[in-house]
Amino acid sequence: MSTTTQLCTFTVCDLLFGVEVTQVQEVIRYQNMTCVPLASNVISGLINLRGQIVTAVDLRICLGLPPRERDELPMNVVVRGVDGSVSLLVDSIGDVIDVSSDWLEAPPPTMHAAQRDVIDAICKLPERLLLVLDPACAIQIATRVCEAAFAGAGRSATTGTGVQTRKNSHAGSVS
Amino acid sequence: MSDDILTEFLLESRENLDQLDRELVALEEDPRNTARLASVFRTVHSIKGTSGFFHLAKLEGVAHAGESLLSKLRDGVIPLEGVRTTALLAMVDAIRRLLVNIETKGAEGDEHFGALIEALSLVCSDDTTTDALPILKEMTASAKGKAAAPALETGPDETASGGAEAFDALPSASERKLPAKQEPELRKAPAPAQGAEIRGAGQADPPAENRAGDDRAAADARIRVDVRLLDKLMNLVGELVLARNQLLQHASISSDAGLVSSCQRLNLITTELQGGVMKTRMQPIDNVWSRFPRVVRDLSQACDKQIKLEMEGKTTELDKTIIEAISDPLTHLVRNAVDHGIESPSERARAGKPAVGVIKLRAFHEGGRVNIEIADDGGGIDPERIKAKAVERGLITLERARSMALQEAFALIFLPGFSTAEAVTSISGRGVGMDVVKSNIERLGGSVDVDSRLGHGTVIRIRIPLTLAIIPALVVGTSNERFAIPQVNLVELVRLEAEQAKTTIEWLHGVPVLRLRGNLLTLVELSRVLGIEADNTPRDVNIVVLQADERRFGLLVDTIFDTEEIVVKPLGRELKGLSTYAGATIMGDGKVALILDVTGLAERAGVGLADRRQGAETNSFGEPKSLSSPTEQLLLFRSGARSRMAIPLRSVARLEEFSRERVEHVGREDVVQYRGEILRLVHVSDVFGEPRAEGPTLQVVVHSSVHGNVGLVVDAIEDVVENEVNTAMRGGRAGILGSAVIQGRVTELLDADAVRSLSGVS
Questions:
Q1: Which strands make up the sheet holding B551-557, listed edge to edge?
Q2: What is the pLDDT of residue B509?
Q3: Which among A31, A32, A36 is the top mutation candidate for probing chain B, defined by the most B β-carbons within 10 Å of its own β-carbon?
Q4: B709/A167 CB distance under 8 A
Q5: What is the topology classification, in CATH, of domain B227-280?
Q6: Residues of chain A contacting residue B511, judged by C-beta atoms under 8 Å apart
Q7: Architecture of the domain spanning B630-758
Q8: Do B572 and A171 touch (CB under 8 A)?
Q9: Average pLDDT, stretch A133-160?
Q10: CA-CA distance, B643 to B715, in Å (whole number)?
Q11: Closest Cα partner for B702 from B693, B713, B691?
Q12: For residue B490, which of B472, B464, B514 has the smallest C-alpha distance?
C-alpha cells in the first residue's frame, strides 16, 4: 500500500526540489543577511529570525550549481536542524504537494556527487521530476565545507607561527 | 560551621519533612509501595548524612535509628504497620523539633531522644513491637514531664535497656493526654495537623502557635525556583534588551516627545529589570568560601600545621553557573595551599616566620571580571624543584628546563600529571588537579596564573567573567561590516590622524607595528585577518588594543561605534568550527553582528608567544607594565667575537639547547626537528662573518615573528635584564639596530628580522 507525504517544493537553478513539510519551519522572503567572513561561500550569512540567529545555507553552492546573479534575491526555506533552525536559500517557492510513495525512486547513480549525497529520492511527477532533498544532509555538507574552508584559508592567509601550546612537550625529546 | 550552608540544610530539610509526613501517611494506606518507601529512606538517609557533616549528634542519632528501621521496611524484612508508622512519624517530629532548635537557638537544645531511638529499635523486630507502643505514647507527651525528670533522659548512644527503663519510670500522666485510640486518629488526620499536635505536645518552652509562625516566616522569605525558569527569564530579558535597543534607535531620530520619553522610561525599567534578573542568578562567593574554614581546620590538623584563614570580599557576587563551576577548583587550590603551601610550625620557626601560617582569600570585581586570589605565606614554589620534577616525570626535557623562565616554570604545575608532593597523602599529591583546575577555569573564559617567591609564599590569581549571557561590548566596523568585541578583552583605543598614521605605523616586512609609549605593539588588520575587502583610502586609523589569553595586540578597524550591552547568541553548528567568532548578537537596527573571539582572532592572525610574555607581566602586576614604562626586557647573549648582543625578550619564543647530532641539513640550511616542525637555524656568527662556536651543543634562541619561528644559534645565553632601551648609537652594520649601554657594558642590539632576511630566512 502506498502512503502519501506532503512536500514543500521550491526551485534552485531550474531544478524542482521538495522537502517534507514536517521538516520545514517556515518560508520567508529575502532577508537582510550579515556575512560571515572566513566561512565558505556555502554560508550566505546570518539572518535575524525574530531574535533567533539563523544561518543561511546557499543551496546553489551546496549542490554545486552556478551561483546566483547579484540581482536575484533568494527565498528562505527555514528548516529545523539538529540544533536550531537553518535557512536554505532557494530561487523560488512552489506549492505544497501530496506525493504518493509509489512515485518515489532512488536517485540515479550517475547523478552529480554533490547532489546525490543530499537527494533522498526522485519523485516522478506527471509533468516533471522532483528531487526530494534531505535538509540534514545539506546542513552537514555545509558544515563540513565551511570547516574545511576555514582551516584552508588559515594556511594561506597567514604564514604565521600559530600558537605554541605548552602541552606539546615532546619537543626536543632526543638529546 | 557556616550559617549559609546550615540555612540551606534547614530549608531543604523542612521541605523534606513535610514530604515525609505526607509520604508516611500515604504509605500506611499502601504499605507495599516500595518506591515510596525507598524515597522515604533516601530522605532520612540524607538528613542523617548532612547532620553528621554538621556534627549534630542528636539529629544524627535520631535519623540513624529511623534509617535502620526504614532499611528493614524497605527490604521487606518487616511490614509497615501502625506502630511503626507512628514511630516514624514521631521521628519526623523529633527531627523537626531539633531543626527548629538549631534554627532559633543555633544548637540542638537539651532535649534527649533516647526513648525515641529505643522505640525505633524496638519496632524493628516483630516480637517487641508491642513493647514500643507505650514508649511511643510516652514520647509524644513526655516533653513536659522531662523538665521534672532530667536525670532520666538518655543520650542517643545510650543502651537500649537503659532507655527502656527510663521510660518505664516516666510518670503516667501523659497517657491521659494521648489516649490509647490515638493511632487510628492519627491515621485519618491530615499530615500538618498531626505534626502540629505532636510538636505542641513535645514542646518544652514557647507556645506552639508562636513556633509555627516563626517557621513560616523563615520558609516564606525564600522560594526555591527552578533554575530553568531563571534561565528562561534571562533569555526573555535578553530579548527585551534587544527590543529596547532597537526602539531607542528609532526614538533617537523621532521628534515625537511622547515617544521619546516613553522610550526613556522603558530604557530605565529594562535596565533595572535586567539587573534584577541577573541578580536572581547572582550568589555571593561566600557560598563557596563558607566551607573553607572547616576544610582548612581539618586539613591543618591532619597535617599538624597551624593555619589562619582570612577572607576578604565574601560578598562579591558571581553568576550561579560560574559559582558552581569554580567551587571544585577553588577547593582544590585551598587544599593545595594547606598541604603544599604552608610549612610546618617548626619549619616556619626556622625560617623566622610566625608559627601560624596565613591563607588569604580575596575576591573583588575589576573591569567586568571577578578576580579571586588565594595567597599563602608559606614556603613558595621552588622553580628548580618544579623543573626537576617535570623533567623526572618526562613532561619536559632537561634542555627546556634549563632555559625556562620563572613564569614558565610556575606554569608547569598546571601540566597534567604533575605533583610536587613528596608523598601521596590523602589530601593531595596524586598529580590530578591543577590541570583540571586550569581547564575548568578556562572553560568559563577565565584565566589562572601563579606567582610565587621562594620562602615568602604563593599567590594564585583567577580571573573569571561575571556572567556569560549579557556582556558589554565595543562595536567596531570594517568594510561596512560590524563586529562586537567583548569589553573584557579591551585594553585601550588609539586613534591616529591620517597624516600621523603614515609616520607612526611602521612596517616590518609587510607587518604593521606601532610604537606605543616606547613599546612595539603588533598590529593586525581586521579586514585582512577576516579576508574581507579593505578599502584602502587614507583615513584616520582606529586601533583597538586587545588582550586575550596573555597576548596583546592592536586591531586596526575602520570605525569605532559605541559600547553596548549585547546578548550573546550562539552560532549554529554549521559555524562552530570558526574559532574567530564567539557568537553573534542582534544590534539595535535588527541586523546581526558577529562577536569576535579575541583569542581565536589572535591565533588566526599569528600573534604568537612573543606578545604573550608581554601580557604575562600585565597579569602579575595589574598595570600593563610593558606599555606604561619605557623599559623592556632584553635577552643578553654572546656570539662570535662580538662582546655582547641583546634581543628584545618579546620576540623570543623559547630558549633551547640542541645537541649537534640533532642538526640536519636541507640544502645549505641547518635545520632541527622541533615540536613536530622543522626549525631553521641561523648562525648569528655567520651573518657577521665570524667563526662559529665549537661545542657539543647549540644554544638556540627561538625567535618568533609573523613569518614563523627561526632558531638563532648563539654562543652563549647570558642573562635577561630589564633595561631602558635608549640606543646610544644607531645603526652600524646590517643586522644591528644600534648599541646601548646595558649593565655598564656596550651591547649591540640585534635586529632579528634583518638577520633573518640577511640569511635568506624571512
A1: B490-496, B541-548, B551-557, B519-525, B511-516, B505-508
A2: 67
A3: A36
A4: no
A5: Helix Hairpins (1.10.287)
A6: none
A7: Beta Barrel (2.40)
A8: no
A9: 72
A10: 11
A11: B713
A12: B472
Domain B3-220 has CATH 1.20.120.160: yes
Cα–Cα dist B271/B244, whole Å: 9
CA distance B742 to B729: 13
Residue-level pLDDT at A156: 39
Alpha carbons B269 and B244: distance in angstroms, whole number: 10
Contacts of B575 in chain A (CB under 8 A): 36, 39, 43, 55, 146
Closest to B305 in 3D by CA, of B267, B260, B350, B358 = B358
| Euclidean distance between CA atoms B581 and B598, whole angstroms | 8
Q: For position B485, what pLDDT does the model report? A: 92
Least confident of A100-109, B295-304, B446-455, B531-540: B531-540
Chain A positions touching B580 (Cβ under 8 A) are 37-38
Q: Which of B144-148, B502-506, B520-524, B628-632 has the highest mean pLDDT?
A: B520-524
Mean pLDDT of B233-241: 82
Query: Distance of CA B273 to CAs A50, B270, B563, Å?
Result: 21, 5, 20
d(CA A41, CA A60): 10
What does the radius of gyration of chain B's CA atoms come to, in whole angstroms? Answer: 35
CB within 8 Å of chain B, chain A residues 119-158: 139, 142-143, 146-147, 150-151, 153-154, 157-158
**Helix, coil or strand: residue B759:** coil
**Shortest Cα distance, chain B CAs vs residue A171, angstroms:** 4
Domain ranges of chain B: 3-220, 227-280, 284-465, 470-611, 630-758
Using an 8 Å CB-CB cutoff, list chain B residues near A146.
Answer: 574-575, 577-578
Measure A35 CA to nearest chain B CA, in Å.
Answer: 8
Task: Tell which of B234, B575, B591, B603 to mutate to test the A interface (max A CBs under 10 Å).
Answer: B575
The CATH code of the domain at B470-611 is 2.30.30.40
Residue to mutate among A50, A141, A169, with most B CBs inside 10 A, is A169
Which residue, B663, B633, B654, B662, is CA-closest to B700? B654
Contact check, Cβ <8 Å, B581/A51: no
- Binned at pLDDT 50, 70 and 90, residue B140 comes out as low
Q: Where are the domains of chain A?
A: 4-153
Residue-wise pLDDT for A19-61, tens only, equals 999 999 999 999 888 989 888 888 889 998 877 789 999 988 8
What nine digits make up the cell of B508? 616590518
C-alpha to C-alpha distance for B319 and B278, rounded to whole angstroms: 8
CATH of domain A4-153: 2.40.50.180
Q: Cβ contacts of residue A27 below 8 Å, gap of 6+?
A: A8, A75, A76, A77, A78, A93
Q: Which CATH architecture best describes the domain B284-465?
A: 2-Layer Sandwich (3.30)
Q: Complex ipTM above 0.85?
A: no
Looking at residue B3, its pLDDT comes to 66
Where do we find the cell 528562561? B232
Q: Which sign, positive or negative, has the C-alpha torsion B711, B715, B721, B722?
A: negative
Nearest chain A residue to B676 by CA: give it. Answer: A171
Residues of B in contact with A170 (CB under 8 A): 675-676
Provide long-range contacts, Cβ within 8 A and 24+ apart, for A17-21: A17/A59, A17/A90, A17/A130, A17/A131, A17/A132, A17/A133, A18/A97, A18/A99, A18/A123, A18/A130, A18/A131, A18/A132, A18/A133, A19/A77, A19/A79, A19/A88, A19/A132, A19/A133, A19/A135, A20/A132, A21/A96
Q: What is the value of pTM for the model shown?
A: 0.47
Which is more confident, B150 or B333? B333
- B664 forms beta bridges with B671
Cell, residue B415: 601540566
Calpha distance B466→B368 (Å, rounded):
6
